[in-house]
């Protein structure tokens, strides 16, 4: 499978990704501004079948769809964590999170647990900027989730669930060889499995 990078070159791919992110951010903001309560209903439905399996979600920032209601429910059954950035070019680590736990400011405006208590999740709820119907995602550009999924998947089966508004879907995404595919994408209206 040839990627867009091998066909266009790195600079052109960088420009394509920047344009795709800009368009996706605009669609995501519109969806965020008009969302109705219960946007995480399908995610709760999916995760009900995995109670007790170590799970990582994320602390939503800006206009990201909010996984916290589902994470709170999952925390009653097993470990739930949130990502903690370790540094540029490094995989994420996941620190245990509880709905009423103390938080501190982390990089990029996301909150992280006050005290680090790291573990390796087997299911990741992955934030994203855009996705396609083949299970590909466009993130923020740091490669954190791609490196993390590659590492976790080298050790054990790890499920990656992209969580997004349906409006974040794109027809075609610019891809690189290092991009890690998602196993599932859940929106406020649909569940897509790959």
UniProtKB/TrEMBL annotation:
Alphabetic keyword roster: ATP-binding, Ligase, Magnesium, Metal-binding, Nucleotide-binding
Regions annotated as coiled coil: none
Names of required cofactors: Mg(2+)
Gene Ontology BP terms: folic acid-containing compound biosynthetic process; tetrahydrofolate interconversion
Positions that bind ATP: 17-21, 137-145
TM stretches of this protein: none
A GO molecular function held by the record: 5-formyltetrahydrofolate cyclo-ligase activity
EC number per UniProt: 6.3.3.2
UniProt keyword annotation of Metal-binding present: yes
InterPro entries, per database record: FTHF_cligase, FTHF_cligase-like_sf, NagB/RpiA_transferase-like
Residues annotated as binding substrate: 59, 64
Name the record gives this protein: 5-formyltetrahydrofolate cyclo-ligase
Species assigned in the record: Tritonibacter multivorans
Organism taxonomic ancestry: Bacteria, Pseudomonadati, Pseudomonadota, Alphaproteobacteria, Rhodobacterales
């Amino acid at each position: 499978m040839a990627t867009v990078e091998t066909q266009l070159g790195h600079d052109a791919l960088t420009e394509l990704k920047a344009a795709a992110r800009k368009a996706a951010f605009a669609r995501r903001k519109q969806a965020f501004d008009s969302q109705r309560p219960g946007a995480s209903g399908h995610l709760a439905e999916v995760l009900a079948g995995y109670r007790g399996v170590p799970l990582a979600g994320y602390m939503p920032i800006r206009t990201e769809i909010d996984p916290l209601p589902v994470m709170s429910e999952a925390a009653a059954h097993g470990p739930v964590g949130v990502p903690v950035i370790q540094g540029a070019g490094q995989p994420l680590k996941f620190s245990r999170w509880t709905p009423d736990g103390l938080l501190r400011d982390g990089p990029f405006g996301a909150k992280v647990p006050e005290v680090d208590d790291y573990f390796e999740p087997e299911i990741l709820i992955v934030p994203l900027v855009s996705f396609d119907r083949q299970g590909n995602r466009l993130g923020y550009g740091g490669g954190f989730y791609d490196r993390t999924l590659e590492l976790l998947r080298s050790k054990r089966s790890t499920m990656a669930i992209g969580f997004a508004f349906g409006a974040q879907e794109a027809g075609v995404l610019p891809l690189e060889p290092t991009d890690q595919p998602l196993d599932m994408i859940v929106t406020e209206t649909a569940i897509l499995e790959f």
